Amino acid sequence: MGNGGLTGQPGVVQHTAVNITAGQQVITESPKDHIIWSLFSFVYANPFCLGLAALIYSIKARDRKMVGDVDGARHYGSTARSLNIAATVIAVTGFLIFIIIFILVNLVSFTFMG
């Protein structure tokens, strides 16, 4: 029982060495599919069905990533990101215009009634 109390295990200790070279850095970042943002755009901000299109491209990007096609996943993810940006900008602009018109209508009706 000289191997830590485990029976059937050899008394050999294995070590793993990692060599890190200064100045060289390899980053293999997987492409982003922006699925959460696309879901938000689809449910809450879907002007001109841009949220739906972004969700479709996000799902395509995730499928390409699972298959191992990094370039295809990066392309679909970039398209989904662009569609999400457009949907968010249009929705926020529309919401702000709605708030401004609502305030102006209430101010005008309040001044004529008083």
UniProtKB/TrEMBL annotation:
<keyword id="KW-0812">Transmembrane</keyword>
<keyword id="KW-1133">Transmembrane helix</keyword>
<feature type="transmembrane region" description="Helical">
    <location>
        <begin position="35"/>
        <end position="57"/>
    </location>
</feature>
<keyword id="KW-0472">Membrane</keyword>
<dbReference type="InterPro" id="IPR051517">
    <property type="entry name" value="IFITM_antiviral_protein"/>
</dbReference>
<dbReference type="GO" id="GO:0005886">
    <property type="term" value="C:plasma membrane"/>
</dbReference>
<dbReference type="Pfam" id="PF04505">
    <property type="entry name" value="CD225"/>
</dbReference>
<feature type="transmembrane region" description="Helical">
    <location>
        <begin position="83"/>
        <end position="108"/>
    </location>
</feature>
<dbReference type="InterPro" id="IPR007593">
    <property type="entry name" value="CD225/Dispanin_fam"/>
</dbReference>
<protein>
    <recommendedName>
        <fullName>Interferon-induced transmembrane protein 3</fullName>
    </recommendedName>
</protein>
<comment type="similarity">
    <text>Belongs to the CD225/Dispanin family.</text>
</comment>
